Amino acid sequence: MKKTSALLADGREIIYFDESDAAARTLIDGRDLPPFRLQPTVRYDAVLDEWVGLADFRQDRTYLPPEDQCPLCPSSDSRLTEIPASSYDVVVFENRFPSFAQGTDGAVLPEAPREQFFRQRAAVGRCEVVCFTADHDSSFSALSASRVRTVIEAWVDRTRTLSALPNVADVFCFENRGKEIGITLSHPHGQIYAYPFPAPRTRQMLDAARAYQHRTRRSLFADVLAAEQRSGDRIVARGESWTAFVPFAARWPLEVHLYPHDHVPDLPALGDAERTELSSIYLDVLRRMEAVFDDTLPYIAAWHQAPVRIDRDLARLHLQIFSTRRGPGKLKYLAGSESAMGAFVNDISPETAARLLREARP
Amino acid sequence: MKKTSALLADGREIIYFDESDAAARTLIDGRDLPPFRLQPTVRYDAVLDEWVGLADFRQDRTYLPPEDQCPLCPSSDSRLTEIPASSYDVVVFENRFPSFAQGTDGAVLPEAPREQFFRQRAAVGRCEVVCFTADHDSSFSALSASRVRTVIEAWVDRTRTLSALPNVADVFCFENRGKEIGITLSHPHGQIYAYPFPAPRTRQMLDAARAYQHRTRRSLFADVLAAEQRSGDRIVARGESWTAFVPFAARWPLEVHLYPHDHVPDLPALGDAERTELSSIYLDVLRRMEAVFDDTLPYIAAWHQAPVRIDRDLARLHLQIFSTRRGPGKLKYLAGSESAMGAFVNDISPETAARLLREARP
Q1: pLDDT value for B36
Q2: pLDDT tens string B123-158
Q3: What is the pLDDT of residues B12-23, one digit of tens each?
Q4: Got the DSSP string for B69-116?
Q5: Are A300 and B339 contacting, i.e. CB atoms less than 8 angstroms apart?
Q6: How many angstroms separate the CA atoms of B158 and B140, rounded?
Q7: Is B2 on the interface with A (CB under 8 A)?
Q8: CB of A24 within 8 Å of any CB in chain B?
Q9: Among A50, A174, A336, whose Cβ lies nearest the Cβ of B336?
């Protein structure tokens, strides 16, 4: 695999991950773009003890353009896209409408607490787009295992690089898929958010893991995985290095967690064999999920990694894939109980979901 | 106001709140229904230290029926609905597809911990539907202030009654509005969930309030309200007993919090004058929200009350109304960052939202 970095016309970085070591790239973005200067902010919510992002310029972001105006397709002689190349394997670039960014000069703006409840600061971090294939009409589940392996190498590289940036606390690789999830571009792609704080779910999992470790001297994630393996009721797929299961208290109609058998903190810590098996088991799980209902599958695939600077031993890398699809033509919505109170109610039993996934014939 | 209770054909309770003290009700449900026996469960999620509801029978619930089959309209000679009456003012009844229920004999099923990670128990609690008007085509914002006052009296009555049930820990009155929020019935109605646990957001707010009180000996909610009143930047409406503001770290494009000036724990603790002003300020805020964008307003209106048995002095009653509408034809979706990591990014600045709401001419 060959990695090549360059800058887009407005100064944003673009990185090609080519499967052939012989790939040669001409790295000129011919567009006339003003310098990239957007600076989102984060605000502290004292009532919930959480940081919230504010990026009001995102209101103007590209929204479901027609295919012949897709900014993630390769450039052609007649049209320049975000990717100044005639084709690519996997390519990563800085998001033009970022929720977190390094700022034009990389400086950290000072926090300005005019009032203790009104704390805000620059949303220092980074948001990247990961294009999985140059084929506009493809999808992650249609990729070859070797292409998924290239995507994994891109995630590994970006996790390592973004973790080294000042102020980055949590690196989140994910894919939103389907217009029902709110995607604004249909070209097969994922995203990476490098947060300046440990994300709320990360904190919540680590609080639970810390309390469990304090009580038992054991790893919560290892013991949950072992319990699911012993039970078998909710197992979807097993490999040498990975096990996929529907969690006992799943929140979503279709939800699968994929755990590595070894206690690794993040994607860069995975060994070669683990990465290879991950490529095929990820595809197997996703294809099963897509085959359960006779309808499109909107989904979110989310990599939970250890935060960058704390709790490296406490956290365990795992993938969470979940869908709002609860049947053909039917979606689960987050209404009052979920959105306002955080109390989820699932319409499909996890054992039923696991059986449907095991029986699915992709 | 006159309150009249009865039982539906399957044993569920129905309660009429009539504005005229002279209202006379014939309390016979002529339908032939099997006894109500559904028992949802809750499961403990050890990885997030939260309870999750499981109600798989809800898959079959009524989904957007045509108007002439609406189960929340009054009954007629030719059609029997959930409300066996020819008209009503405000009526409350037990949900036919509940996420939490008392069970057929009211007994609490024993917890069955076959395995420490697989704890589940009966979802003992109650779910009720609150119909705001017999007029199918109306909406909360179109109600008169006196009708809203009747709705408030119904919420007060139900909060008091449900709080007295064994095992109920948190009573949540709310309205989901709009098909984009996932409502399954368009007739103007809200719901009440009586949870067997303090809801995750309740816990999170109280954890923050407890830490703040420990540090400062002061009330977090009182001090946040005072800071918003001093600043004025995000105030939407002020009354004698209530102030409405967009929170400094709002998560949603349009989000308004309505706080009482007195530190009351829940709706039953409101005095007469507070209830009367609430009727008009609630309508004022909601009508402003509906007037901001030239489009329908899907929204969730959520009453945060003190939990039933703990932290009664720490919590303060407040109303949170929020919409996913971020512009005409545009919705905010909860995608990867929000749904998988709990990290919200808002596309509209709270000060802009407050200005739009202040300038709105309903």
Answers
A1: 83
A2: 999 999 999 999 999 999 999 999 999 999 999 999
A3: 999 999 999 988
A4: G-TTSBP-SS---SB-SS--SEEEEE-SS-SS---TT-PPPPP--SST
A5: yes
A6: 19
A7: no
A8: no
A9: A174
The residue to which tokens 């999920």 are assigned: A289
Q: Kindly report which listed range (A54-58, A59-63, B39-43) carries the lowest average pLDDT score.
A: A59-63
Shared-domain flag, residues B226 and B342: yes
Same domain, B212 and B292: yes
Name the residue among A71, A7, A60, A11 with its Cα closest to residue A35. A11
Range of the domain at B21: 2-197
Question: The dihedral of CA B155, B161, B163, B168: what is its sign?
Answer: negative
Looking at the structure, do residues B192 and B206 belong to the same domain, yes or no? no
Pairing relationship of beta strands B242-245 and B330-331 according to DSSP bridges: unpaired
- What is the count of structural domains for chain A? 2
Any A CB within 8 A of B95 CB: no
CATH number at residue A92: 3.30.428.10
Q: Say whether B189 is catalytic.
A: yes
Q: pTM of this prediction?
A: 0.95
Closest chain A residue to the Cα of B123, Cα to Cα? A345
Give this complex's ipTM.
0.94
Question: Measured between CB atoms, does B55 come within 8 Å of chain A?
Answer: yes
Cβ–Cβ under 8 Å, residues B5 and B154: no
- CA B70/CA A362 separation, integer angstroms: 39
pLDDT digits (tens, 9 = 90+) for B273-330: 999 999 999 999 999 999 999 899 999 999 999 999 999 999 999 999 999 999 998 8
Q: Å from B115 to nearest chain A CA? A: 8
Same structural domain, A93 and A215 = no
